Structures are given as C-alpha cells and as structure tokens.
From TrEMBL:
Positions of transmembrane segments: 51-70, 76-97, 173-199, 229-256
Keyword tags: Membrane, Transmembrane, Transmembrane helix
Protein name per the record: DUF2189 domain-containing protein
Keyword hit for Transmembrane: yes
Amino acid sequence: MVELTHRDEETTFEDICLHSSDIQVRQITLKDLVQSLREGYADYGAKPSSVPLLFLFYALFALVLTLFAFGQDLRYLIFPVAAGFTLIGPIVAIAFFAMSRRREQGQELSWSAAFNFIHTSSFAPILALTLLMTLLYLSWLFMAELIFFSLFESTMPESMADFINQLFNTRHGGALIAYGNFVGLLFAFAAMALSIVAFPLTLDKPVTSFTAVSVSIRAFMSNTLVLTVWGIIVVVLMTLGAAVFLIGLAVTLPVLGHATWHLYRKLIVA
C-alpha cells in the first residue's frame, strides 16, 4: 500500500496526458455555428462586466502598433498589423474560454477566476501555443513587408496620400492588394487549423501543446468547409467591431471568444 501511494505521488503531467488517439473529432454543420454564436452571446450576457479590461488591452495594443507604424514610416504595415490581429485572437480569447467553462460547471464568473489556469498544468502548453501564434503573426508581418518592398521598391510612397493613390491607381498597387490578400488568406487558414481547438483543449484537458495542435489540425481537416465559414464570420464580426474606433470589439470579441468555446465542445469528444 505504501509503495502504491508513493507511485501515485510521483505521477507526472506526462503520465496523465491524453494522446491524440484518445480524442475523437466530430463532424459539425452550419447549424452548429449558429448555435455556438447563440450560446456565446448567452455567456456574454451572463457576465458582461468581464469585457472592459480585456477590451482596453486589445484597443491599446492596436493603438500603440498603429502609432508605431506612422511614427516609423511603416504606413504599409498598418493594414497587415490590423488584419493580423485575427491570428492572435485565440490568445486574447483564453479568458473567455475559461469563463464559459466555469459557467458550464456552475462556478463563480469573475475576472480573476478566468486566469486561474496560470496556476495549473494547462499554463505551459497554453504558453507554448501563445508563442507559436505570436511567431505566426510576426511571420505574416515579415511576408507583408517583403511583398511591399518587392513591388514598391522603385516607387516608394512619399506620404500616406501617395501610398493610397498608388495602391488603388497603379498596377503594382493592385498586385499588392491581390498578393497581400492571398498570402493573408493562407496565414488565416494556418492560424485556424493550429488554434481552433488547441487553446480550449489545453484549458479543458491534460494535453501537451503538440497533441492540442495535432487534434486542432485534424478537426480543421475534417470540417474544412464549415470552419472556413466560421473564419469568415469571425473576420466579418471583428471588422464590424473595429469599424467604429474599435468600440464594437467590446461586444464582438467576447461573444466570439465564448462562441469558440462552445464550438470546441461540438467538435471534440475526449
């Protein structure tokens, strides 16, 4: 009996981790997307006071990067910086995943409780995923800069007005729009495949970051069409939320965060 107890005490995180083969992926439909949005809005209504602090961080982050772009004569990166926020959206949404999970369990919904995962075994894989998504975001900015300089090297804009004029009235401006959006779309697909399930899974189950990513990719590949529609919904709602000086993000960001948690529940069986 003593020996058994000793072994129990020596049980490590790796010993209890689920493997990718332990986790099943469901097929979902467009109706599941609608239902997830409804459930996300219900979670938002249950705890709307959780929004301001996270929204303030998100808005300030956008403002600082935009001012940096103007100050350092990096006007061409303003759109990639803003568009790329969808790549790191899952990082910002972790608190909302946690709140939806706590609401499911009938636990207290407080801002501080949403970050209790920092003191659990979930923190290390979530940190690893955060670094991965940040690297993806920086890679997108690098590619955006590379495309710009390859097209505008001989006709560098002298002002913001000149840049906008060239963007919409020249061949290389049109090429920038076409190539930039195409490459951005590839990055968006990569971000969704890597993260659609990974972040909520690491918060919910004992898994490594590698397992979380592999399951997320499997879920995306099994539901590519439906999740592509989900990606479009996210982009549209985030764009609408940011259209009025980012004020709308105070609603769209938490609703999408909560909804993504419920979408995860519909995708995964573990």
